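assembly run, all chains below
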Amino acid sequence: MELLVTVCAWLGLGVLLLGVTGRLLWAWRAARIEGSVLPVMSARYGLRSLVHWLLPLSTRNQRLHPVVTLVSYLFHLCLLLAPLLVAGHVELWRQRWGFGWPTLPDPVIDVMTLVVMVAVLFFLLRRLAAPEVRNVTGWKEYLLLMVVVAPFVTGIIAHLHLLDYRLVMVLHIVSGTLWLVLIPFSWLSHMFWFFFTRSYMGSEFGAVRNARDW
Amino acid sequence: MADIEDARVEDAGIDQAVDKLEPARIEAVIRRVLGAGCGARLKVYLQTCVHCGLCADACHTYLSRDRDPDFAPVAKVKETIWEMVKRQGRVSPEFIKKCARIAYTECGACRRCSMYCPFGIDIAYLIMLVRRICALLGVVPVYLQDTVNSHAATSNQMWVQPDDWIDTLIWQEEDAADELEGVRIPLDREGADIMYSVIAPEPKILAQLIANMAVIMKVAGVDWTMPSLDGWDNSNMAMYSGDFEVMGRVERLHWERALQLKVKRVVMGECGHAYRGAVYDGPKWLGWSKPPIPMVHAVEFYYELLREGRIKIARKIKEPVTVQDPCNIVRGRGLHHKLRYIINELCEDFRDVSPRFEHNYCCAAGGGVINCGPPWKLSRLKSNRVKAEQLAATDAHLVVTPCHNCHSGIEDIIGYYGLGMHVTFINELLVKCMDRGDGSGEVER
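ok done. output:
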């Protein structure tokens, strides 16, 4: 088990880091070749756009879809924070590297995990029910939703000792690794591209076209 | 489902070209266009899109066609460029035909959807790439291609011949002088403060607008000129067909004419796409960071004249008035507040639209859509019921449309949906309302 944790942690975090770095370096080079991207970028207007799109209900489209907006915010918040602040993960890190960081109490993590699971269920139903989403949804979308929720489902099952602990832990570790590995190579990459695409559009609207993009 | 009537539209420019297409040529063109030149944005956009469908509510065609998912921006991308990328260009001639219909007639490149996409993906840019591919394959709606041919042969959009151009200016100068003594249309005057440029439909079918401008210039005491030679047309339909080589030539000639006349600024008439071509797309293609001389849109120019008191208003329009925010000068230049300042100066009863400013609905005519001509007119009108409903809600009688595409598009919508309104350029209101200093200009509508 310990070996699995070590291997998967190195593999998952390694591929994530290398993958994201590789993608960013490639994009930097491609943007220089394209020529018309970098001159447009503006710190002021890029940040202006990011701030508006990161604050809930501050854009017209978010206000048109309040439920989607609310669920998305809670989902992303819990999705990113729970794995970083759960005591079990931090303890593993402390054992390996000798230092850690403050954690959230387990009941809070349980609630965050539930939020992620309910949100994924909501996204799944939305993909099935809303025609404009169903129309552009294929097997990849369903698969990625499952990959995203799997570490949370297995995590909470393991924590509550509902099934065979060892088996569930193995599944938890493997699915978590898969999640990390897929970030640079699927649309999960919106995680880092968001900051670039949004600030590019913000720059073009603000610095070039004198208009707002929210 | 896409509209079966649209799929049945016959367009020689598309149908006949598609019949001659060979898969190898399609593949080569797609690979060339999607190669190095557009690597960063295209690939990052395709990787980022999470297929959430949140762009749908941005699109007037989607909203107007009972929220048919095939008209959502993301669906238009899925049906065109996703497939091209996924199949590495190995697509059929029939597929290209569908791409042409979607890219030229169901998207006006208004860019509203990039304000609704959480990631700010420039969907209109992706659709423009599809148009570029279609143009290189020679698959372009026949009426749109005719305007491009005109640009290529005459450097203006409507086959206006050099003698016709000068003749029209002299004729308009005479008409304007009948209205106000001493009005001139100075031709080729080097070193003037302003070169005034128009789009070719003005001399061709709306020549009165040029006379109106001459009157406005005279009253405001502006030092201006118009070019007698090619380069007077600032419009650019090649930008929308995807023929960027011709687009670049047209823009270069326009700016070279202005430089030759050594003017300080270029003021352009009430047109949206011409602003985009002259200020953004043209210079970008030519490798310039910005135009060599400042370009001032008519809305900015009128605003300036009114703010500085160079034009005074003698009488205001009494009937209820509303507005069409043209995409290319609102989302494209942020002129919506100046536009409303002008309308409030000229009109007593201004009734604003909702949504407005950058969130305006496109007229469904711009972006080359109206230039696809009669075969696609019904499709275009069906694609903008939402605009008709928005205008009807204001109960106005008059719609101010400071853009030629908006003007024609809104006029069609008013007719088709029986709104009982009229469209007007600001130019027309201004000559009615302004104090000409000779006791005239007191005409009440």
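The beta strands of chain B are 194-197, 224-225, 265-268, 295-297, 321-323, 398-400, 422-424.

Residues 312-433 of chain B form a domain with the Rossmann fold fold (CATH 3.40.50).

not gonna interpret more than that til we talk
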